[in-house]
Every structure is written in C-alpha cells, then in structure tokens.
Amino acid sequence: MERESISPFQLFLLVMLFELGSAVVVPLGLDAKQDAWIAILLALVPAVGLIWLYSFLHRRYPNRTLIGTLQTLLGKPTGWTVGLLYVTYFMYIATRVLRDFAELLDASFFPQTPMMIETVLMVFSIAYVVSLGIDVIAKTGQIFACLYLLSLLVAVLLLLFSGAVEMESLQPVAEDWKRIFEAAFPVVYTFPFGEMIVFTMLFPYVRPKSNVMGTAIGAMVLSGLVISLVVATEIAALGANIVSRGSFPLLTTIAKVNIADFIQRVEVLALLILIVGLFFKIALFFYAALIGAAELFRRKSHQPLVLPFSIILILLSMMIAGNLPEHIQEGLKAVPWYLHLPMQTGLPVLLSIIALIRGRSRKAGV
Amino acid sequence: MKRLLSVFLPLCLLTTGCWDYRELDNRAVVMGMGIDKAEDGRYRISFQIANPNRVAQQAGGQSGGGGPAGSPVTTYAVTGSNITEAIRKATENVPRQIFLAHQRLEVISEAVAREGIGPLLDVMERDPQGSIHIPVLVVRGGTTAEAVLSTLPPLEEIPATKIYDQLKTHEEMSGETYAVDVTEVLRALTQKGRQPVLPGVRLIGDPAVAENMETMEHALPLAKVKLDGMAMFNRDGKLVGWMNGAAARGLAFINNKIQNTVVHLDCKGRKKEVSVEIQRVKTSIRPRWNHGKWTFHIHLTGEGNVHEVNCPLNLEDPRILDRLETQLSREVSREVREAVRAAQGAGTDVLGLGEALHRERPDLWKRWEKDWHRRFPKVKVQVSSTFVLRRTGMRFNPHQKEQ
Amino acid sequence: MRKKRSARKGSKSLPKQLQYRDQDRLFSSLEENLSKIQQEMGHSSDLVIRRIEAGTDPKHSVALVQIEGLVDDRRADEFLTKSIMVDSAPMDVETPFYDFVKENALSMSNVQLVSRWEELFHALLDGKTLVLGEGWPEALCADTAGGDKRPVTEPALQTVIRGPRDSFTETLSTNLALVRRRIKSSKLWVQSQQVGKMTRTEVAVLHLEGIADPDTVKEVIRKIRQINIDGVLESGYLEGFIQDKTRTPFPTVYNTERPDVIAGGLLEGRVAILMDNTPVALIVPTTFFQFLTSVEEYYQRWDIATATRILRFLIFTISLMGPSIYVAFKAFHPTLIPTELMVNLMAQREGVPFPAIVEAFLMEITFEILREAGIRTPRPLSTAVTIVGAIIIGETAIRAGLVTPSMVIVVSITAIASFATPSYSLANSARLIRFGLMLSAGLFGLLGLTLALIVLVAHMNSLRSFGTPYLIPVAPFVPRDQKDLFIRMPWEALSTRPRTARPLDDQRIPEGQDPEPTRDPKEDDPS
C-alpha cells in the first residue's frame, strides 16, 4: 500500500478548518473592543514569521516530524523528553478544545444533556476517524471544510442582507493602539495562530512537497482574514460589549438574522460551524499527539494507542476545570504565557538556532 | 479496538436518556410575555401561551374532529421576584415546559419601566433560545401589560403576533414608533454615549371587554391596542419621559429608522393639504468646534414623492417644486428639533450624540464620557435637512384649478 | 492461511464422479463408454442416448449423447445428418468408417475431438452433442448448445426515457454480443474463465486494451481466479469476492443490466465483468458518484442533465436523512422551526401516543414491510397489498391519531426519494444507513446527526474500489474531473477520460473539436 499522504490543497483546507475551528465561535481579541478585528490582523503578522520558522525546520528535515527533529537536534534523551512534553501539550490542548466544545454545546443547544455525553460522543467519533489515518482525516476534512466555509459565508451574507449590521459600531477605528496590542499579544497570537505548531507533525506527509510553506502561510492568512471579518460582523451586529460578554457570540449574531420574517432561525448554521470546526481541531491535535507518541515509543502504527488516548482525553476534559469561567480564565491568563509561548515560539526558535549552527559547522567541516 | 468500540457505543446509547429530547406537545409555547408590578412589589409576569389546536384550526387547517372551541391563547400570570422564578412557578399552572424561543415580544408596564428595565434584561440575554432578539414595548396610561396581552384582536389569532405585526408595519409605513430589541437596549445601556428608547403601546377601550371572546365577533372592536410614542430611558434604564407624535418621528429620523413615512405640508395658508412620501432618509450627526463651543450638526438628506395634493398647485413649475422641497425640509427639521428638545428636556441622550462624538473625537470623548449626562442637556444642536422631490405620482397637476 | 486450508479441503471433497482414475481416457468399447457415462451421471433422466446404426455396409453402431434442454435440437440434427448419416455420399470402402466420419465432421464448424473423460463431461454439460462409436478411442463433440433462452428485453431496473432499450439476458454469449455490437474494435478484449467447481460458470472480463489500466485488469482476473467456491449463481457472488472491503454498507462494485452502461464504462477505461446465467454485469473500479448518475444524463442536453444530476444529489440526501432531520428538529430543536410551522406541528402531535422517534421508526419499518411485500407478493395480489397499505397507513392511522400526518409526509417523501435513486444497490445502503442516522438523531439531535455524518463520510473516504478512492474526484479533489460530477458539461468539453479508472490514454476527444455553426447555405450560393 502506498504511504499515506495529503495534498497541498488538502493541507490548505485543513489549516483553514483548524485555524477557524474554535476561533470563530468564541469572542476573540475583544479586549480591543470594537477594534478586535484589527488586533487579529495585527497578531497575524508575527504569526507568518512563526510559520516561516516551522517550515524552515521542515525544509531542513523534510521527512521528520517535530518529534523526530527534536531527537536529531537535541540528542536522544533530551529530545525524547521534550518530545514527550509536546505530546502532552497536544493532548492538553485537545482536551481544552474538547472542553470548550462541550461547554458551548451545553450552554446553547443542549442545556439538559450532561457534558460527559457530548464529550464521549465527540471523542468516539474522533477516535474512529483518527484511527483511519491522516489520509482519511484529510479527505474528510476537505469535504467538511467546504461545507464549513459555505455555512460561514452564508451566515455572514445573511447578516449583511438582513440589515442587522451597523458599521457605526466599528467606529472609532483604531481607538487605542495600546489596547489593540495587548489584545493581540499574546492571546490572539498564540490562539489560534500559534497553534499551527501541530502542523509540524503533518508537514512530512504533504506530497508533493513543492510549496508547503506557501500553502500553510496562505491558508493561515486567509483564515486570519476570515476570523477578522467574522469578529467585525459580530461587533457590527451586536456591539462590542455584548460580544465580549458572550460565550458563543457567533450564535447570538446568527440568531439575529431575520429577512422579512421569512429567512430566520438559521442558528443551525452556528451549530454546524461549532461541531465541524471543533471536530477537526480536536482531531488534528489528537492525531498529532497519537503519532508523536507512536514515534516516541517506536510503534509502527498509532492505532493501538487510539483507545487509551481517547479515554485519557475524556477524563482530562472533565477534570481540567470545575466550571466554564475557570476554564476560560485559565485559557486566557495562564496558558498563553506559560504554555503556548514556550511551546509554540520558544522551543522552535531554539531548534532553528541549533539547526543553523549545525548546518554551518557541517559546512565548515566539509 | 473495533470490538471494544462496538461494545462501548451501544452501551453508551442505552444508558443515556434523551435529556434534551422533548416532544412538541410537552412544550408550552410562549408567544408573548408581559411584566407588571405586583402589589407586594414583586413582578407579576404573564405568559401568553399558544393553544396550537385552536391556532391551526383557524389557519384553515383540517379540523381534527372539531377541537375545543375557545381562545387561541391562554394567558397565565405568576408573581415572582424575577423572571426565572416566575417561569419556574408558572409550571404550577401550566402542565408543560415553558418554551420561550418563539416569543414574539415582551410588554412592560410603565410602572416597571419607571423602576428600571435593567433587571429584566439579563435573563433574556443569557437565554440560549434567542429571546435577545425580540422587541420590547412599554404600556402607557396605567393599563397593565397583562391587559394588553389579553386583548383579543379582531383579525389575527394571537395577540402577541398581532402587536408584533402592528409594530413592524408601523415602523415601515410611518416610523413614529419602531421596534427596539433587547440587543439594542443592552447596547445603549452598556455605553454612555446613547440611552435606550422603547416603543409605547396603549389600550383603548374597556380592558374588561377586551379579554372577552365576543370582541372578535363585533364589527367594531370594543377595545384595541394602539402604538403610541417612544419611551425614553436614562442611563440607569429608568423611564424618564415620552416622545409623542412629531417628536417621536423626529427621533426615528435621527436614529435612521425611517423607511417610509408621509409628511403633510401646508398649501396657500391651508393646513396639511399636500402629502409627501419620504424615502431613503440618511441622517448624519457631526460634532463641530464652533465659536469656542462644541455644536452638534444633525443633517438629513432624503427623497420625497408627492402623494396627494388638495390645493391648486402647478406642479409642472420647477419653482413650485423647489418651494415644496424647502417646505418639506423645514417641516422635517422642525420635527427633529422637537425630538432634540424633548430628549434634552428629559436629560437623556436617546439621540446618540455622545456616540457620534466618540466616533469623531475619541480623545475628547474620553474626557467628556464621565459627565456626559450632565453636558448633554446643555449641548448646542443644529438641525438642517435637504430633501429632493423626485416624482409626483401618475399625474402632474391636480384636477383642482385655481379660481 | 485459512483460504489455503479450505482450498485443500475443497479438493478432497470433490464430488466422486468428477475424480478420475489413471485411465482417464475413453475406452474403445462403445458399450463400456455408454455405461460409464450413465453411471457417472447417476442415470439422470435428462441424459439422452440415441443409438444409431450408421453406414451402409457394414453397419456401424454409433451413439449420440446429449442433455435434454441444453441442446438446440435443430443444430444437433444438422450435425448428425452431416457427419454420420452420409448414406448418399459415396463411401470409400478402403477408408475406415471412423476416419471418414472424423474427417467429414471436423470440416464442419464447432466440432472437436475429446478423448478424456473430464473433457467429455465438461462438453456434455456445456450443452454439446457427443458422438461415440464402437471402437473409437475418442468422441466427436459438436457445439450445439442452445435450448431455451430469454430474448433481449427492455431493462427492468434501470429504465430511461431516451436511450437504447435492450438489456442483458441470462446468456453470456448474447450479452457479449450486445457489448461488441456497441464497441466494434479489436481492442475490446475478452478474457474468460470458469468459476465454481460445481457450477463452472463462465465469467468474462472485458476491457479496452490500450485504455484500461493493465494493473486493474490483472488484479480483476487474479481476484476472480482466486475464487474457490462450489458455485456462483449470480454476479452478486463475484461482487462479494472481489470487493476491497466487506464490512461496509456501501457497494464498491458497480452493477448494471444495461449494455450501454458497460460500453460507457469500458470507454472510460474501466473493466467489465460479465457472467453467465445473470443479466447483471459488474464494472470496476467505481466511485460513490457513479451510483448517483444515470446513463441517460449522457444522452440528454447537458443543461438538463446537470439539473437532473443536482436534483439527484438532493434526492439521495433526502432518502438518507429525511426522517432523522425531521426528528432532530422536532424533538430537539423546535427553536429552529418557524413559529407557524411549529404551532401547526404541535397541533398535529396532540394526542399521538408515541414519541416522535418511535413514530419515525414505526413508520419506516411499516414502509419497509410494505415495500418488501410489494416485491415478494405474487403479481395478481400486489394491487391488494398496495391498497391495504395505502389505506391503512395513509388514512386510518392518521385518523385514529396513531401517527402525525407530517410524519407520514416525511416518510413518504423519503420513500419516493429512495425509489428515485438511480442505483438500486445504493438505495439499499441508504435504507440501512437511514435507520442508523434516525437513531443518532433521535438520541442526540443535530449533534448526533452531524457527528454521524462526519463518521459516515470518513468511512466512505476509507473505502477503495480497486485502488480508486471511493469519493474521487471530490476527495481527493481532482479539478479536471469536476466537469462530469455535479454538472455534466457539454460533450465537447468532456475531452478527457476521468481519472477514476487511471486510464492509460486520457484523451477522449482530440483538440479543436468544438461544434461549428452550420454554414448558411445562402452564403455558398454562387449567384
């Protein structure tokens, strides 16, 4: 059987799905009030540099995942340990997104259903899809990315047509740059853009290898623009205050659609966006953790790991926080600084420096 | 792995109930909610619940063996300290789960509005079923919200739906009152540069008769619900005054809510002989530094069509049209000025002047924001408008000739 | 491993009469031969042995052996007269009778000599006529296969308004001819083999040399050769053996009874498998989308075909998810139903004893019973079934307040959509999956439905049909093949063969074949 691979087009759509995933459903960058959309665009700029860094490492070691690169550059024991850290990190973020998913679903469409049920359903669906391999994830993701982007587009268009959008809510533009900067860094920079670190596990699967970096950056920039557009639409429809206090502002915004009392109650779009987006986001983190673990423990296939990891995922997502505010506070205050920044930026920068020194010394040696 | 899954999944399915599964006939669909003050100071909340059999029957559907004749709605009133408590308490009377997602509107009595609408909004905002987008109305003239909701309309089946449609039509055709939903109220309450307004509603006739089924059988309804003016709230969400008639429309002009309305102009000394339909109104508010003071310029532009002329005017003469245009602009400006006067008199910035300042001069706004409510009544406002007459209908000159 | 064992076991349990001793050659004694044939065939009553005294001087005893019903009597008689009953012909006394008959017979078409018992029995059971004679070490065997055949009729399943009216029959040779008549090319290659130890059913593998992917052809032949079974009665047996994955509700081998579909498939570089005794032929590799297309779309104008195709995707979606969407919205998300509709639905629900999901299951199962009854009922009774079903379900159940009218509407639309699905096998898969989706929607609303859908699509993505991804050209995305997927472009735009079957030769229409407007005859007028 041929080796599993994904095409650049599939990579593009996966990146879009992954980046938009949870970013469009939660209030993002709202610390900048009506300028949240600027904060998102601002955070995009260094994020492009970050992807450049990731693909630099990928070009150095085109057939290695992040775990492999770590072991090559840091040496066996250190690399292995840091690799384990990354696997844990991926699992933890998957858990966080899973918790987001269950909380949002519980708060919006399924108030009576216990979170455990939603979590278990989601994880088992993900486990099945992930056990089929990256090829199937990518192909499925490709189909649902189209559905997803279409839903998003329809939602935004309906909002524009229903006259619910007041551009004045976005004024004054760029009121306070300091506030915008604080909103952009580190939160928006690390989530969702920095989370692209996951794709360092997938880059080796991309075939043909023609332009991995271009594809990844293109997809990320486009999704950044889309997130910015969605956030701007939300603010224009509801006002920055309501959006910033919302747990699922996209739903509230979409609920506002009412064209001549005829096209209304289209909240199902928000539900689709929530389920599909988070499904693939969790699936990618989960898959990265699985193949990372398989590589660390020298397993040929990640499949035997799926079930134990799924159970860990379910239990962790139930345990990480007592309630939603605690969960959100952790996500906004602690995680970006102590987890995202070192894992997404710090270590990759370090790795690149080592790679550069090595490359130079090797050249000098020859 | 697969075997384990195949054992696990059905187990999950079997052990789970269906928490959010609820049959439609176990839900009580609330069409409208009324909020009054109870004698003991708590809220008295009335739910208007649709009676589906009756509604479907009236809609011309197949009569399921002659269902129970009666009102298409049932209104339950419950007393509680807040809405949530009342909803829960309503189950004492209603055998089904109260279902708010299809609510058409919420009616608040004036007494409640004067005390402040803030406490009523949180539950609507928090509710996942989308109550945040329904319009809110204030009952004028001492009647209770319950009475307004209970007034059975002659044409439409469900009172809440009828008031909702009335509101929408009035907004479209006149603009004197317009629908304001919870989002807009919240938006105004969470910032200092604009205060909320809500449309008013008034019950005309005897409320005791209104609740009777027989009302529907009279050719001339004995009691009816009429939209009347806009209620102004201050920054604490308390009702502080009303805008009526011309002022109410002026408010709609300022807030860009006019879609289509008719302005009557005087002709040759006789009052209101020419009616002009106005469309495509655009209003801009600009703060300007003028003679050492900040002045707000409200400028309106729009188009008009001559709709009715009951005096001999030569409409083929461009100069006559010019004169009508000037007259029209003057008339609109007058209404707007009245709105400004009413707002400044009530001391609440329902016009959004603060918001305009915030947009134009964020730096200045930062200094003014704190005591805007004190500055607003004294602020200088200039109103101007430019209207263009486009068409005169199917005829040029009226059939009446100058004697 | 397991396969090997069973194969060995199979050879051991080979029926006794087909195992031959060392002397598997015919005896020279006619009587001995005949008694052996009768013994081996268990004195079956349809075994016909006619003894004839042939030749004038001296008389030779000859026997004609055939199986009743498998033989075309006219041809058998013709053979007999031409080969043996040669009284009129001047017989050279010097030449032995046997050699004379042999020479005479072999000059005719379709006559062979068999000397081995195994060959003899194969020939006999294939419907050939054997001639044995006293002292002959061999038997003459003439292809007189015939007997009753069903004539070529209109297709029963895949009907079209515009298009050819013929369909395959149960006879392989007829079917092959139907295909050949459409593709008159020497490049249409047919490779035959027999499958089934007892049935020895003829299976023909067709492909267009130079277009079809040779690996696929080899793989098909290899897979068919590997089939070790006592008998195959229908191409469904083959389908079960050659498909890539068994545990899936989706068909990964396309089947059809239309020769034009087979010809179309061959032209796209696919491989067709025709089998004797069944009018249903197979095509591989196939994709999910092939099941949703009807051949008629290629015969109609492209814009109409495109509209039909889009309609068909809608039809399939309804047949898959109709009841589950209805249940999910009604029981879980009435928030998302327009108010008037919801009030209407509520009024219908009053007094109905079952929960919506139970109601949906009841109605669906009732419908499946009706449908099954419709197929199985003897034709004279089928009207009765229809009437009873329609009255009971359509009228009385609603009137009795057992089910809501809206549920009946949903189930009926789903049923009609299911009938409108062009492929019967896919409609069947959809029926099965529908129940699964209903369950997940009934338990978890739109969440269950969406997740089930993702899992379903992932499952479909994991399928392959002879190496071709099941959902190509959507996933993986093949831009070039979009011209014949959701829209059917005009013919001149369908210049390349789809990548589905990995054809060797992509080009279907050479460059520059755009239709030109007919020249106005007036312009050519010299005057």
Automatic annotation (TrEMBL), chain A:
Pfam families: Spore_permease. Keywords: Germination, Membrane, Transmembrane, Transmembrane helix, Transport. Its main location: membrane. It is found in: Membrane. One of its GO terms (biological process) is spore germination. One of its GO terms (cellular component) is membrane. PANTHER family: SPORE GERMINATION PROTEIN A2 (PTHR34975:SF2). This is Spore germination protein KB. It comes from Melghirimyces profundicolus. The lineage of its organism: Bacteria, Bacillati, Bacillota, Bacilli, Bacillales.
TrEMBL record, chain B:
Signal peptide: none annotated. It comes from the Bacteria. InterPro entries: GerAC_N (IPR057336), Spore_GerAC-like (IPR008844), Spore_GerAC-like_C (IPR046953), Spore_GerAC_C_sf (IPR038501). GO terms for cellular component: membrane. Residues 20-202 form the Spore germination protein N-terminal domain. The keyword Membrane applies. One of its GO terms (biological process) is spore germination. This is Spore germination protein KC.
TrEMBL record, chain C:
It holds the Pfam family GerA. One of its GO terms (cellular component) is membrane. Residues 497-527 are annotated as: Disordered. Residues 502-527 have a biased composition (Basic and acidic residues). GO terms for biological process: spore germination. Belongs to the GerABKA family. This is Spore germination protein KA. It comes from Melghirimyces profundicolus.
